[in-house]
Structure formats: structure tokens, C-alpha cells
């Protein structure tokens, strides 16, 4: 009885103390509060503010609501909505996501959505409520989707990430990232969601287009370009934004290609391959990380303490904040069945290391109840709040929460940004095949047939996570070819759709091809959302819509996982009919994932892959087709011969893969493949070694000569193989690349510097070590087109980190 009495007494005292603390925290804030002093050290400001916050305010600060509901628009005027005022007053929110987002899921269109000028007004109105109508006056973080341009009306549309990766040019990614950051900040946003660092080793997965491909090294280098562009020299700069990495961890290899499904990989593979790009990004100072929907080895990523706290915080020293993917906290219970209640899910996520909730339903009341029921400590809550507030202070939002409303007109979709989009589209165009030099085409052609479902479909050029845009700013292949060849007779026939077979007119396409000197057939896929498609609460699309009589083109993009990789609908039938006319035929692929093109590879003389080339894709394609630009794009993913080959990525672990009964194990086109209108020779490979221990460097140099009759770019690729290792390693792995321009006849020496980090593996005890022994360096133009090889020996084992 005495024990029960004391227990009740202590509980009563706790409640009283908590109530008094809350009352004290709600006192009016003095004008001279430390957190309001711009001259005070940031850490002092953070501490002072957190000490003044109630539990409700702390929980609210970690809540990110859907932003497109937070304004009302009437004509050319915009103001904060009642929903926002309620969210500030009751939920005491700290952030919004997608204020400027427009797409069929949000039901925001060109007419009822925000153009850049109105976006600036809307974000100012929203911030005014947060700053002036709340007790503490904490400005909101505004986050936006920004992987291939800001997902908003009137912004610059760049090629999708898989197209960016095809450039093999991280500096171009940096230019793009800086341009996107300027557009975001001009409209009032502070966080750009991107880059995506997932390895795409499962082509059936719906989000391959959002990745930089299958190789950890390429992904890390291209990702670092975006991060450097986003964050610049620091987020104190009013033209920089916080970069949010997606998705932590190993999201791109879910079982069966099912988006968000279970991931089955071992700890060594996780660390060696999937964590490689994330570690590079953390070392570079990225400030935000987003969790994945999937589970890894049975633990949901959003509640994986070993990864979010043990690895990310304690081992890697990450100092930014972790945000859940939309509804992934709820998914701990609803999808993974790893929590009995949503309150338990909130507690699991918070205790694992998630600092902020995207969507507003994962934390909020559930986290508040978890705290009151003793499942989450105030110390952990304070820690999460501090991670968020620290960056708000560092960005200067307390002093400058508003933007200049005339700025977007000068910045967003400027001529300079459009030029970067064109440059990126050009550098990403990948020539897969060019039999007998069919390309480039003569500008003396008089009759050209342009055929296919992707030849003149605007949104099929842009990929997923794209807002409605004015048609005059998006150049399709047909428009690019017409602009390039104004005197030629150009006949356009769609022929068929991507998926739908009821709107097919192959005879018209055949007639056009017969009367033309060349037929350019533009096929592939689409991630174009439409207003008939149904969406899940996460924004992912469902595969089909109720009562649809005409199928949407969409066969890629979030939620559109595939069981086959064939050209859908009657596309192949269309291509075969055009080829049968005898007219020289060129296949152009516009797509978001590798598709099976065995028949075209055998029968079509020239094949070009542009992925989703963005707003300037049509002009870029025309420049390549007619020889004004010499293509040098490279495949960031292998193209398989069949689904049964998958996974078919080049850097698989030993042993060497055996052939199948039906076909070889080799891909149709390998990672790094891409042709040019000129030729290049490699010579004079030299390897030298200097330094010792962790200061060891291996210098590799090679001379490359343009031996053809055109100027052009070459992508020199360095692959490394650990000849004998204590654990199984990849047969080879990319450890350096450089895109260089060479005039015809010109030679250049390309030099790579390898450090122990590029040689390292995770040994049997999970120590990160570069083991003594022999390594083989392979230099060439693709993972299969190796021109030169030479070995060197590391004389001592070099330990980088301990388990």
C-alpha cells in the first residue's frame, strides 16, 4: 500500500511540476530575449528559445504540413488561408512542404496555382502569420521538391536525374543546383528536396528516373554537384538552400521492384555500396536527410536507430536534421506492422533519430501523447527541436523571413537558367548505336517523317515531380526538328500512344515514312501525371484509374512499378512497320527507366537515348541529329536484354556471372556506354605511388587523342579491381571519370588521384580498410570498353575506421 501511495504521489508531483513549467514557458516573451538578438551566438539563441517553449510548441516545431492548402488565391491576389492560421495557433507548426507545388495530386493548375510572382506574395503572407501571430514568432521552414528543377509553375525544367547522370559532369550538376536554389529562395523557399542518392539496381522500380543510376561512385559525384549548388558556400547566403538527401537507406532495391517494399541486403553490401554516396554527402556538409519508406533487413528505415543515430549521428557526425518521408512514420504501423499504435510509431521514429515529420500526422498529437506517457524523453525532444532551430538561425530567417516580391520575375526561368537546361540536355544525349555513320543527318534533307507518341507530347519530356508549365517553354522533339530544319517538309504522325492501343494509326505512319528521306521515331515511356489518375496519400500514383476508357501514358514515376520492361502498347509494332518501309530509321528513346530494345538494337541503324530531357530536350536532340553537337552522354545504368537478367548492374560481386540457357549474362548496353561522331585512342598509361598510411596517393595518368575528323567530348572512365581480398568485392568498380573536350587531332593527358578511401573495403570485422595487395587499374570508354590495364601493389594495409 505504501508503494502504491508513493507512486501516486510522485505522479501527482510530476503533473504539477509539468503544469507549472508549461505556465512559465507561456509567459510573454521580453523584447530583449537572447534568441531575438541577432548578435548573440547561435547556440545561445537556440538554448534560450528552447527553454521558453512549451511541449506543444516543441512538438509543433517538428511538424511539416502540406503547403498548398495554406493560401487562397483570388485573381492576382493571394493571402494566407484559415487553415494556416489554425495550424499556427493550434498545432504551432514549424514547417510547410510544397506551398508552390502544382500537379494533379494537389489539384493545382496553371489557373488556380501560383506563378513565381504570386508565390513570393504567398510565402510572405504565410510567414507574416507565423512571425506575427504566434507567441514566439518563429519563422517557418518552407520545403519544396527540387530534383530536376523546382516543382512549381513557371520554373526552369531541367533533365531528370537519370539524364543529369548521363552527362558524367558533376560541375554541370553544380550549375543546375545553384540555379534551382536561386529560384527557390527568390520565391520564399528554404529547403530543396534532393539529390536522390538511391542506387537504381532494379529497373522494374518506378523511381529509377529520379536517381543517378547504378554506381555508388557516379551517384556520389553527381550528388555532390547538386549539394554544392544548393548549399553554396553556406546557407547564410540568401541564394542558397538546405539540401535534403533522399532516401535513407537502400530504397532503390526493394523486393520485386515494389516501391517502398522490403530490402534484403547484408551489412557489408549496405555499407560498401548503398551508404557510400551518403557518407560522401555527409562529409561534404549536407544539412538534411530524409528517411525511406522501405525496411532494411526487417527494420523500417524510419525507425532504424542503428542507422539514424548509430551510423548517421555517432559515427559520421551528421549535424543537420532528419525528416521522415511523407507518412512514413505512420507507415511503421500501417505498412510494416512494426508498431501496435500510431503513438508507438511516433515514439519509435523519434527515439530512432527522426527529428521532423513530413505530412503532420506522424508526430503531432501522437508524439505529444508518447511524451506524456513516458515513451519519449524531453531531452530527445529538445535535441530534435535544436537541430531544426539551429538551421533557421543560421539561415537568418529570424531577421529576414520575407522575400522581395519583384525578385522572381528577374530570377525564375531566366535566360541563363534555360541555357543551363539546354547544356545539360545536350551533354546527356546518349548515342547507343550508329551503324554505317547514319548520323549525323544532312541539313540538305527535304522530307523528314517524325513519328511516335513521344515526338510531340510536352509532358512526356519532363518526368515525374513536374508542375504544369506553359507550352511555349517546353520544346518537344518535333518542335526542335522543325526549328532546326525550317525549309524541310516535315510530316508528323503520332502513330500510337505509350500504353493505350485504341488510338493507333500505323498505316498513316507507314505512309509518312515511305514519302520521307528519313524517319525519326520517338518512343519510350512517360511519367506524365494527369487529372484522371488516382493518388495515394503519399502522392504516389495508382497504376490505373476507375472508369478510364483511354489509358494514361504514365508507365514510370512514383508508384508505377513494372513487371516487364517491354515497350508498352503498340510501340514496337509501330517501329517495325516504319522500318519495313526501307526508309532509313532512327529510334529516339525518351524514358525514365531502361527498356528492352533487343529488336531495335538488331534492326534499327541508329538509336539515341535522351531519358527525360527537360524543357530544352527538343532543341538538344535536333542539334545532335543534325550534327551541330557531337554526343558524349554515357549510360548511368545498364540496359538489360530481359527482365530475367535483372539485376544486371556491371559492378556485381565475384564470382564472374555465368550465362543463362536462353542468353548471355551480359547486358545489351553496359554501364558507361555511349558513342560519338568521332573516335578516341588511349595510350601511355602511367601509375605512380607516394606517401604512406592514410596519406598514400596513387596517381594514374593516361593520354587521350581525338583520332576522328570532328571535335568532340570523351568521358574517360577509371575502374578498379581488388585482385585478392579478404572478403568478396566487386569484379570492378568506377573510381574516377572525367569528361574532356578534344578538337580533332588533339591529345590531352588525364590524371586521376586515388586515395585509400577508393581502395577500401569492409573486412570480416566490418573495419573499413584498404588491404595490402595487388589492384588492377582499367581505363576505357565504358565498363566493357576497357582500353588499357595495369596493376600496382599497396605495400601496407591502411585502416580508415574501426567497427
TrEMBL record:
Lineage summary: Bacteria, Pseudomonadati, Bacteroidota, Flavobacteriia, Flavobacteriales
Residues annotated as signal peptide: 1-25
GO molecular function: beta-glucosidase activity
Pfam families: Fn3-like, Glyco_hydro_3, Glyco_hydro_3_C
A GO BP entry: glucan catabolic process
Family per record: Belongs to the glycosyl hydrolase 3 family.
The entry's keywords: Glycosidase, Hydrolase, Signal
Protein name: Putative beta-glucosidase
Domain Fibronectin type III-like stretches: 714-783
InterPro entries: Cellulose_Degrad_GH3, Fn3-like, GH, Glyco_hydro_3_AS, Glyco_hydro_3_C, Glyco_hydro_3_C_sf, Glyco_hydro_3_N, Glyco_hydro_3_N_sf
